[in-house]
Amino acid sequence: EDYLLNFMLVQKEKKGAVKNYARYCLRTLEGMLSSGASGFVPSVEEIQAYKERPPILATVELVDGNTLTEELPVTPDLNVGKVVEICTHFMELVDERCENMGIFVYDLARDESIPDPDAEKPFAKLERTPRPLRNEDFMGDIIVQKARQKRNYKFVFKRKIFLPSHNTPSDDVMFNRLIYLQAEDEVINLGNLPIADEATAVDLATLSYAVAYEADFPDDPTMLATDPDYLVKDFIPLGWRERKSVEEYAAMVVAARDKVCGADFEPAAMQQTFLEKVWNHDLYGAHFFNVIVLSCGLSMPTDLRIAFNHSGMWVFDMDYNKKHSFGYADIYRWGGSSSQFSLIIWNTASESTFELKLATAQAADMAGIILDYINAIMQATQEQG
Q: Which of 247, 238, 230 is nearest to 201 (CA)?
């Protein structure tokens, strides 16, 4: 017993796959020493899975950076869908819409001292957006892939599928909290839901600020503009942040406080108000991907943001100016490789199809979310019928 434990501790200090495998074995051994042997006998399929991918210790975060679970042992046969179920259980979610939650892969800053295997690819300089994993994927495969790509990453638990029929309040407090955090992130931090008018932008900033500070919301605009503990700038929606001075925004947020937040600063109510202000946004629930156009049958900029949600596919330039949109019925075929993604799309104006060929590192991600949304829409249609 002591020899085995010492062996694992030595291997844990090595690099690469050996280190990760040793950490997993050590965690498993610690569990057995504290709780005793489980008596579980793995099936042949479960044993064979170890030849396909390594077991891992997965740390999963929430959108706000808080840790949901740290070093969760994930066996090679445990797919993303099962990990989502585990996370749902940990969060004690009871809302039936929790089946639309998912695991995302966030690419982090690269270590520039390590050569980039994709340095010569056309998409090398594009920012990689959060990758929604399919339930059939395996997190062990992701770790192997990221090791080969020499890229740092993290796993995040958040909602993947959004349908208009699901945009209703929930009695599940934690579910509402998670959906709010995700909407706030999309509006305030990422700017993926561009806000059309200043009044709405200020209202959303005020609600976001109030949820964070509750009754400690200052009534002095100077504090919001200058006090490091109360700065309001990071609560302004990204697309509006530089349009006025922080002093002007501080005064506007304080002025909107009582009207927008009410007298009691109830966090749940303010979160719900925030959600209801963005539920009807055309891009609510959209997943964005940065791409470069290789060939196209329509006039488009070279660099694009492609988004997919319940409505279909949206095409924007890098400043979120809409260029085109297509329903899923107009997307006849799609597929790709490790460096390209191609779609055959029906153009209503010319009554003909054209091919949109893109350079991207996220072809599999786009293909997966298209299929997941189509399946979700079909399932919802059948249930309503």
A: 238
